[in-house]
């Protein structure tokens, strides 16, 4: 997905090359505000995962990549 706007593209280029973290963060905030103000991206779906486990579950780890339990390392006591 991409947004094609000359003004936004220029700001993105500036943000990518900015070495100062504070100024870079300000540029990204400006970019986000302009994208929101122009309403070029509209979130239609918000994915949410509910994770439930039993009390006997051991070595429970949620994979940051898949957003679910890592079933290979999980066990039961």
What does this protein look like?
The protein has 77 residues and is mainly α. It contains two helices and two strands. It has a two-stranded antiparallel sheet with strand order 1-2. The termini are far apart.
Annotate the secondary structure layout.
Layout: H1 6-17, H2 21-38, E1 57-58, E2 75-76
Antiparallel strand pairs: 1-2
- Which strand-content bin applies to the residues? 5-15%
Q: How many separate helices?
A: 2
Query: In sequence order, what are the helices and strands, one letter per element?
Result: HHEE
What is the rounded Rg?
A: 20 Å
Shape: elongated
Quote the distance from N terminus to C terminus: 45 Å
Task: Strand order, main sheet: write it out.
Answer: 1-2
Mean pLDDT score: 87
Main sheet specs: 2 strands, antiparallel
Specify the helix fraction band. Answer: 25-40%
Q: Please report the total strand number as a whole number.
A: 2
Task: Pick out the low-confidence regions.
Answer: none
The class by helix and strand makeup works out as mainly alpha
Which keywords apply here?
77 residues; mainly alpha; two-stranded antiparallel sheet; 2 helices; 39% helix
Would you summarize the structure shown here?
This protein has 77 residues and is mainly α.
